[in-house]
Amino acid sequence: MKKNIFISTLLILTVLSCSKDDDHPEHVHEHELITTMTITLTPSDGFTGDTITLQMQDLDGDGPNAPTKSVSGNLLSGVFYDGAVVLLNESESPAENITSEIEEEDEEHQFFITPGGGLIENVGIEYINLDSNGNILGTQFQINTFDSSSGTLTFTLRHEPTKPNTGLADAGGATDVEATFNVTIE
Amino acid sequence: MIRYIYFIFCFNCIIVYAQNCNNTLSGKVVDFHDGTELERAIIIVKGTNKEIITDFNGSFSISNLCNESYILEISHPQCKTKELKIKVFENINKTIRLEHHVEELNEIIIYGNSFNEKSKTLIENKISSETLENYIGATLGDVLNNLSGVSSLNSGNSVVKPIINGLHSSRVVIINNGVRMEDQEWGAEHAPNIDINSIDNITLIKGAGALQYSGNALGGVIVAEAPDFKLKDSLYGKTIIRAATNGQGATTTSKLTKTQTNGLYSSAQLTFKRFGDFKAPNYVLTNTGVLERNASFRLGLNRYNYGLELYYSIFKNEIGILKASHIHTARDQLSSINSEIPLIINDFSYKINSPKQDVTHHILRFKWFKRFEGLGKLSLQYDFQRNNRLEYDVRIGVYKNIPSTDLKLETHSIMVDLDTQFNNSIKFKTGIIGRFQDNFASPKTGVRRIIPDYDKYDLGIYTIADFRVNDKLLFEVGSRFDYSYMDVFKFYRKSFWNSRGYQDIFPEIIVEEEFNNQILTNPKFTFYNFSTTFGSRYTFDESRSILFNYSIASRIPNPSELFSEGLHHASARFEIGDLRFNSEVGHKIALTFKLQNKNLNLSINPYINTIKDFILIEPTQIQQTIRGNFQVWEYRQTNAQLFGLDIDASFALNENVFLDNQFSFIKGNDLIKNEPLISIPPVNINNEIVYQNPNLNNLRLALKSEYVFRQNEYPDNNFEVFEAVSQTTELVDVSTPPNAYHLFNFNSSINIKVEKNYRLDLNFDINNLLNKQYRNYLNRLRYYAHDLGRNIILGFKYNY
Fold first, then answer.
1. β-bridge pairing B628-652 and B573-576
2. Is residue A15 in a domain?
3. Whether B495 and A56 lie within 8 Å, measured CB to CB
4. Which of A171, B363, B428, B543 is buried deepest, with most CB atoms within 10 A?
């Protein structure tokens, strides 16, 4: 009996001493994290005006800090703007470009632009680039401004949407980015 | 004179009528040594087709015996079979004593733990091997769902977790072949990693009273036990195949056992299960296929005064998660809820794509026991478990085929138990348990760890005793002490760390601050927990008894409750744990009334469970991210109370027709916020009518009705999201429970004896007979899809 208890104590000790040393765990690099979205609106050939940048940045990712938003200026009425989107992971250095990954897997992604408020009646949107099946990818687009007004532009990136679709409402999928900016046409 | 003859004639008539076999022999089968009632003893009346199995109390009743001599053959697993000649001339009550020693000695090997009796004062529900065989291909949760007071928390139809009296996950302890399962049971979408084909029977204990297993089972204990081996030279086996229309797949399991009179035994068992996409009544549930491969091996020696056994099992399960449940934000969730059918429905396929789970669980166990004269039985068990959980998300780029969760949990346990009997009325059990656990979260996932790396040490000591005051009254007392120590390494986002106020409470646990927006911390926790149980049983007579039990159970917070800090995909919400939690302590009082006679078997089980520092999760705020808005769910400690009533009744209309009824009712309240608890099972009633005829190849036909009421008491966790298209805010209704539903299931089976020792059993079942479309409040994917539609199952079992 005593011998058995001795043996079992010994076994417990052996097991416990098998535990790993106190090596610190490895830091995980979050490669798919999108921290920053930058939309650049450049006046198309033949139109004049400043290039407008809309940016949303959330450096702590899913952390509690809210993202910050900035709009570099107002759009001009009656202008065609060439739009492009860049998605970055700035938690890594150097920052990773997520846009190129999305463009590689174009069939599984779609980018949507949704005007709101006074902009509903005052912007025209044309998606330029298509995926390999001929459906919209939307990371390049053209915006045509009409009359002076103010409202919102919402940019949404969906992963694995139903394609083709008629818009966000029937696209489904999972939202990777969603940002609403207050925009004025002057 | 004629009158006199007439009188004699009539008197004879009465005698003849009496001789027409109206006597009943009833009684108990007990242990020769200490009078313990022997459950599952088989009594065969030779020369007739009567075969009776003793119940929970060792009681039996054989009716329709004539005024003549019979030879009874009484057998019990591991006992030498006894023959008894008995002359029947009226209703007789007889106590049959069996030499119980062989079984007593073997129970350490035979039963999962060293103790045959799990709790004498708490209600125990058993599922026999025959019932289990009808469920091959189902999950443990599906099987237990048939018991009153048990529901299941589902994530789709293949991830099924048992809920006992309203409690689940870490509050339910599962003992698989004597091994306490350590399979990351903390997660609501982590199903038990157990193959029901590797076990023989299941006992459910509703409460924490069975302290030999654990002190933290606030909900209850599920004990899955290995089959018994007979001490004789034999080689036997069985193969079962069950094919089903829903999912267009099958489960097959085979088992081969060899036993010898010298006590050596060995057995091997294999299971293979493959299903494609399951179907709701009107559409395919895309990406819900299952691939499961299990095996178990057992090798042992079973002698008069000692025995040992080696056991190994592997469980590997790949489960597809409904494609339409892959959403990210509150906005996505709104679209899913507003759509009557899933947003993604593809053609049927066997392919399991992301999102999916791939879990592997290994168990290696060594057991030894020896009987010491004057001391009792001493047993020793060492077991090792490795649980590797991979969760694949829908990802992009080089991470497409890399899991986003990769956790490896390894557990070593050593148990020493002593079982002593002082005299005929006092039994005593005591034991000590040491456990070491190591959790490793792989950094190769490219996703921040949900559960951090940790080492955990546990030491538990328990003692349980029961005192048999007399034939009618029994007391049971027990207590247990548990020590736990956790050494954790966790990365926190600096913004999160500060927002929780941890920088002031735990400044000393920061190890490194060198990662751009993260810090590495080293939290250490020590918990001391006490659990006790007190119960009594009073047996009024052969048919009536009452059980009372009061138990206090303590549970330490699990890793998910302590450390969660991130997005939970299928539910599109952030989950946040708290380092400051302490143990929750539950006080449960349970009463059981039992009535058992020839025609009626009834148990009524009211209970009340008051839990101090109950840990629950609830929505607190909306968090903005670049992906959109998320609902934040935070764990919180409160005081809770659950009370309810379980009723089981079965009624024999005649020899062939039986009615079974189950009723469960439960209410759960948060006593601090004064609101209902979330995910409390709604009231449900099951009714079954069974026709069984042993003379027609044991033909069995059963029709079951399952009525689940709507849950009317729930907390309101609804919230609003901004709709960019319409520029309005919309309500996301995540709270409102679905409507009541009524399902019908049909089961039938027949046994065909091929030749001596060979038997073929055939099954034909239809689940959800009417193809009813419904959603289940306790299914976490109810927002995205309906539950399963009609399923036609064909089963073959061959015993050889």
1. parallel
2. no
3. no
4. B363
CA dist., res. B226 & res. B255, Å (int) = 12
Six token digits for residue B232 = 């004789």
Stronger pLDDT, B197 or B677, i.e. the higher one: B677
| CATH code for the domain of B742 | 2.40.170.20
**B527 and B671 fall within a common domain:** yes
Yes or no, beta carbons of A65 and B394 under 8 Å apart? no
Nearest CA in chain B to A104: B397
The range of the structural domain enclosing residue A60 comes to 31-185
Residue B158 included in any domain = no
Nearest to B446 among A28, A102, A180 (CB): A28
Peptide bond connecting A43 to the previous residue in cis, omega within 30 degrees of 0: no
Task: Give pLDDT tens digits for A39-93.
Answer: 999 999 999 999 999 999 998 888 888 899 999 999 999 999 999 999 999 888 7
In 3D, which of B328, B357, B354, B324 has the Cα closest to residue B786? B324
- Beta-carbon contacts of B757 under 8 Å, excluding residues fewer than 6 positions away, are B236, B799, B800
Reading the block at residue B425, the tokens are: 């009325």
CB–CB contacts below 8 A, A to B: 176
Number of domains in chain A: 1
Question: In the predicted model, is pLDDT for residue B457 greater than 60?
Answer: yes
Strand partners, A46: none
How near does any CA of chain B get to the CA of A136, in Å? 18
Give the domain extent around B418: 221-799
How many CB atoms are located within 10 Å of the residue B522 CB?
16
> Which of A64, A102, A179 comes nearest B496 by C-beta?
A64
Q: What is the ipTM of this complex?
A: 0.80
User: Distance from B105 to chain A by nearest Cα, in Å?
Assistant: 17
Please report residues of B whose CB lies closer than 8 A to that of A121: none
Tell me whether residues A176 and B382 touch, CB distance under 8 A. no
What residue type is assigned to position B445 of the chain? T
Query: How many domains does one find in chain B?
Result: 2
B339, B626, B633, B729: best mutation site toward chain A, by most A Cβ within 10 Å?
B626
Query: What's CA B283's distance to the chain center, in Å?
Result: 31
